[in-house]
């Protein structure tokens, strides 16, 4: 009798779950590519919606294709009043990620037809989700304060419109451009936790709104998308450059996690962190300095001195919060903004999954007992 040996890998670390042509990461060299194009090139030359098109349909759009795509997204930004009414019933103290997950799932009630073999259905779902997720994030931000949502403006581009819906003020062009680059940088990152969650949900052939809601719920955890909030809290706890090294020593002594540092894949500085750091400096030059940036620089230096030999460097979360805060975005919206951008990647994997679908059904290694007799309740 042959015995099959199955090696247990906690967290499925290093185990391929799929084949994909969407994105590529080289963690040793600090390379991130979307469909073969370096993310730095896209950050410099592309827009978020053009990048989303690239990820989902596999090629850069022509000028006409991009024009039509942008037009469709602009004119699908509004959400049903029943969804807004539902959001008004959410508790003011609820986290925006929970509100977003519920609202994304609710979209499926209004667009529940599952024509997953119909290219027009797939396109319409992509457009609706890219268009409406930012509207719902901005709406909850205002609703929880007792205000009506700000309606989207069709004359503003994707990023400028979102910033406008938060404040009812048209943003400075530099602020809108930098925010758009942030969305591009966060749009996709291979098979991370939320993308895997999306793929597992997609493999059951449910609707794409449930796929996105599932991924939002996964992204909400502090070990995934919630870390940039914790970075800002950490920098504020440190308080000054002089406190950096004692604070770090305390974390290391307790073997506590240093928020914004380390990555399962990257063993050098995250290429997205390099770009985000440049964006932060642009913002500070234009709109004024943030003292926490000086603390962040000193912390990065101290961590590199102590932990570089372990491949621990800043990840994408370390500088993104500083950028968002300078843009006037509340801290608990940092992760929903991550979701706004990552919808593009989730939908790309959803579409790729549909092309050669097989439901995910991993196995397990059983560690429990066998042949246990049932004990009547009076004898327990």
CATH topology of the largest domain: Citrate Synthase, domain 1
Arithmetic mean pLDDT: 94
- Count of helix runs: 16
Rg for CA atoms = 22 Å
Explain how this protein is built.
The protein has helices at 39-45, 48-57, 63-74, 81-88, 96-110, 119-143, 158-167, 173-185, 193-202, 208-219, 227-238, 244-254, 271-287, 291-307, 316-326, 334-355, and strands at residues 23-26, 31-34, 37-38. A hairpin with a 4-residue loop joins β1 and β2 (31-34). The longest helix has 25 residues, at 119-143. By secondary structure, it is an all-alpha fold. The model has no long low-confidence stretch (mean pLDDT 94). It has a three-stranded antiparallel sheet. It has two domains: 19-223 and 333-355, Orthogonal Bundle (Citrate Synthase, domain 1), CATH 1.10.580; 227-326, Cytochrome P450-Terp, domain 2 (Cytochrome p450-Terp, domain 2).
Write the layout of secondary structure elements.
Elements: E1 23-26, E2 31-34, E3 37-38, H1 39-45, H2 48-57, H3 63-74, H4 81-88, H5 96-110, H6 119-143, H7 158-167, H8 173-185, H9 193-202, H10 208-219, H11 227-238, H12 244-254, H13 271-287, H14 291-307, H15 316-326, H16 334-355
Antiparallel strand pairs: 1-2, 2-3
